[in-house]
Amino acid sequence: MSFGIVTINFRRPMVLQLWLASIDRLRAEFGYFPVVVVSDDDRVPCERHSVHHIAMDNRSMTSKWNTGFRWMRDQKVDYVIILGSDDIMSNDYLAKAIEKMNEQPDMVYTRSIYFYSADRDHSGNLYRYTHEYGLGVGRCIRRNVMEEVGWTPYIRNINFGLDGELYRRIKPFVSTQEEIVGAITDVKTKMNMNSIRVWAKKGERCRPALFLFYLSPTERQLLERIKK
Q: Can you say whether residue 138 is alpha, beta or left, with left for phi > 0 and alpha for psi between -120 and 50 degrees?
């Protein structure tokens, strides 16, 4: 069973460096797997981390995601994993995802995500949010499902409501799915569209150590630089 991770980015170089360092940590534990970043100008840092980069100007977010998915199709992976470029996955989450993917469900997903504030607003705070039905972050979609939609799950050029848009498109082809309980943390800065204050109201406050403990030393150093 093989898998790859797709993300997109837009002018958040420091956060992307943190994300790339998290990929290094995951590969150190689980071995090499393909990763692609679709963005305007991040080729150099991606190359330093053996991550494929596809240059696209400021087009719609869905166009960028579709481009990343089509590249992953050519890598012949069994599953594609969706992560935002500010979503830091724990080793535990990926271990559980691999265990579930080995059972070959059509989709693997989670209902919970953490939000960590790396900005002055609520700086250093961590919140956990749980969705009743499931989240797009950390979603693992089996190859046969992606083939049903031509590896183009987005048919509209939009920059909002992406999780729901994708799920509605693939839902007719998802017969089996498995849930993961694990940690993925969305690192919020002033560059985010949604403020940490939104999630502070919706979620439950947690100990920051729940996030910090699974980071590598390099990731911790980068996080402190972002917070400055």
A: left
